[in-house]
Design goal:
It catalyses: GTP + H2O = GDP + phosphate + H(+). GTP binds at residues 16-21, 133-136. 24% of the residues lie in helices and 35% in strands. It contains 14 helices and 34 strands. A hairpin with a 3-residue loop joins strand 12 and strand 13. The radius of gyration is 27 Å and the shape is globular. It starts with 5 loop residues before the first strand and ends in a 5-residue tail after the last helix. The model is unreliable at 33-38 and 40-58 (pLDDT under 50). It binds guanosine-5'-triphosphate. The site of guanosine-5'-triphosphate has 19 residues, from helix 1.
């Protein structure tokens, strides 16, 4: 196809504003897929994504559209992940296209995530077409939302398209806008091959599938290509496009988006953002902006049933094959036995992986408190990364500790602003900005990532009754007075509960934790001290009193089935407990104890 008849675009939207529904409509309207083949929400291929209503892997589809001017256009839609954890992946997908549809739910208005993704699109020099969706709903307020797009984002929304992805109103107008308002790609077919690796995943039949955007030159079957990041050479054995099912093509030229397979063994060998060129007479200059993905949140994952460790290793290795940004190494904990210390791009990423191990592999897990990566500056001049609070060296060897900070953007209705400010303040936040758009406030805070990874989002949702939206990016490392707090149960330190805290907050956090643990740990036949300590110094303490009688005692003389039930219940409870010295700690204690109320 000649460049003038190609349009490449992505759809930027907040969760639930209708991105997938609109994509389905565009596909349907152009009849890329016969109607009977249409599955609901075709672009979201993984179950877990559908269930959670989020899009994780970039997907893509090529559709043919005969415009009103009678000419035939090829439209390539790249579906970008909608979540902050995948900001880098989003930025790469954005660089692979020239324009975006900005979809805003006309009953809801602009949300924090919309903003973050629009900025990414603007960074990539996109032409942006605003689309007001859900105009079929009575609560739709197109004018107000258009005004908000202009106020908050600074985009001209006078020609926003009014759409109902549900009923199909405005779909043709959207297709026409893609053709006439978005620019055609540029590129030189005679230049050496330069293609961007936009995404890659493992397919059990085809092996690793690589999504590419050709910038210059062209690629075809049997070409030998180089991945410039690590210099590996592969021969293309399949080349094609998504309609959205895979269809082979002869070649891919400048401006085109498609896939290749090339007997690549693991997804790890393909890096998002890498430049692909030909082995001979390749380009000398890779595309700018490549960044290896770096896990920012770490936690320990342990099988509840230690006999499942090998199955778990298997599961983790399989998942890692398909996810270059997930890292793991074996970890042993005195209390939890064998498991893995895993690194993730963020909390959502963590949850997705954990859920997949539990559901797809049927292994119940204990998750230890998520921790961020700290930078330790040792007195002897050495610099280290700390991924696990349990590994924190004695403070006498440490000169200072730096922690990652984020810039958080929160959009919230006026009424809840006070609660949001208080929450951010409680989490050691520094206010950077506060502006209004209509009856909503936009708050920007500099916050320690550590204070956000655990339950910030849950708290934010609960103090604002679900009305706040939130987005963040990591902005760098800063020194602070951080110490390791250990938890001792019956005088035994429980590694999985140790955490890094700010010195000034340690007492309060320690007290809250031991109080919670006192409620979470069942009583035993003996007294159990529960303590929080920094170094050797105990900063909070509770004592769990001893059980006076056997739980079944009160049933003596009563009916036997009741007694049986009690015993069964105890037994079921046991399975989810872990022994720490002489004490059984239930699994949920590990997560619950760390939540701050
Ligand atoms: P994520 O994949 O989670 O990012 O969400 P999304 O932006 O893709 O939203 P999705 O297309 O899944 O739509 C969210 C909900 O809004 C679904 O229940 C849709 O049926 C509904 N919806 C989408 N477009 C319209 C519309 O034009 N009108 C109405 N009434 N509902 C719509």
């Amino acid at each position: 196809t000649d460049l003038a008849h190609i349009r490449n675009f992505s759809i930027v939207a907040h969760i639930d504003h209708g991105k997938s529904t609109l994509a389905d409509r565009l596909i349907q309207e152009t009849q890329t897929v016969a109607l009977r083949d249409m599955k609901a929400q075709m672009l979201d291929s993984m179950d877990i994504e559908r269930e959670r209503g989020i899009t994780i892997k970039a997907n893509t589809v090529r559709i043919d559209y005969k415009a009103k001017n009678g000419e035939l256009y090829v439209l390539n839609l790249i579906d970008t992940p909608g979540h902050v954890d995948f900001a880098y992946e989003v930025s790469r997908s954005m660089r692979a296209v020239e324009g975006s549809l900005l979809v805003v739910d006309s009953t809801q208005g602009v949300e924090a995530q919309t903003l973050a993704n629009v900025y990414q699109a603007l960074d990539a020099d996109h032409e942006i077409v605003p689309v007001l969706n859900k105009i079929d709903l009575p609560a739709s307020e197109c004018e107000a939302v258009a005004a908000q797009i202009e106020d908050v984002i600074g985009l001209d929304a006078s020609e926003a398209i009014q759409v109902s992805a549900k009923t199909g109103v405005g779909i043709i107008e959207t297709l026409e806008a893609i053709v006439h308002r978005l620019p055609a790609p540029k590129g030189d077919v005679d230049a050496p091959l330069k293609a961007m690796l936009v995404d890659s995943w493992y397919d059990s039949y085809l092996g690793v599938v690589v999504l590419v955007r050709v910038i210059d030159g062209s690629m075809k079957k049997n070409d030998r290509i180089t991945f410039m990041q690590n210099g590996t050479v592969h021969q293309i054995d399949r080349i094609g496009v998504f309609r959205p099912q895979m269809v082979n093509v002869e070649r891919l030229g400048p401006g085109e988006i498609g896939f290749i397979t090339a007997s690549i063994k693991q997804v790890r060998d393909t890096r998002v953002g890498d430049t692909i060129t030909s082995e001979k007479k390749g380009t000398a200059k890779p595309l700018p902006g490549f960044k290896p993905s770096q896990p920012v949140v770490f936690c320990g994952l342990f099988p509840v049933d230690s006999s499942e460790f090998e199955d778990m290793r298997d599961a983790i290795e399989k998942l890692a094959l398909n996810d270059a940004s997930f890292s793991y190494e074996m970890e042993t904990s005195a209390a939890l036995g064998f498991g893995f210390r895993c690194g993730f791009l963020g909390l959502l990423h963590l949850e997705v992986i954990r859920d997949r191990i539990e559901r797809e592999y049927n292994i119940e897990l204990i998750t230890t408190a998520p921790s961020v990566v700290y930078h330790l500056y040792m007195k002897d001049g050495e610099q280290r990364e700390l991924h696990n609070p349990a590994d924190m060296p004695d403070l006498t060897y440490v000169d200072h500790v730096e922690e990652p900070r984020i810039k958080a953007t929160i959009l919230v209705p006026d009424d809840y602003l006070g609660d949001v400010l208080k929450l951010c303040q409680d989490r050691r936040g520094i206010q950077l900005d506060l502006t209004y758009a209509g009856s909503r406030a936009m708050v920007v805070y500099d916050l320690p990532l550590n204070e956000v990874v655990f339950d910030f989002y849950d708290r934010l949702k609960s103090v604002t009754k679900g009305y706040a939206s939130f987005d963040y990016q990591v902005i760098g490392y800063r020194e602070d007075n951080l110490v390791k707090m250990s938890i001792l149960v019956n005088d035994e330190p429980v590694d999985a509960l140790s955490m890094m805290v700010h010195r000034d907050r340690a007492e309060a956090r320690g007290r809250a934790m031991v109080e919670k643990l006192k409620d979470l740990i069942p009583r035993h036949m003996f007294k159990i001290p529960i303590q929080a300590a920094i170094g050797g110094k105990v900063i909070a303490r509770e004592t769990l009193s001893a059980l006076r009688k056997d739980v079944t005692a009160k049933c003596y003389g009563g009916d036997a089935s009741r007694k049986r039930k009690l015993l069964d219940k105890q037994k079921a409870g046991k399975k989810k407990m872990r022994q720490f010295g002489k004490v059984d700690i239930p699994q949920e204690a590990f997560i619950s104890a760390l939540k701050m109320d």
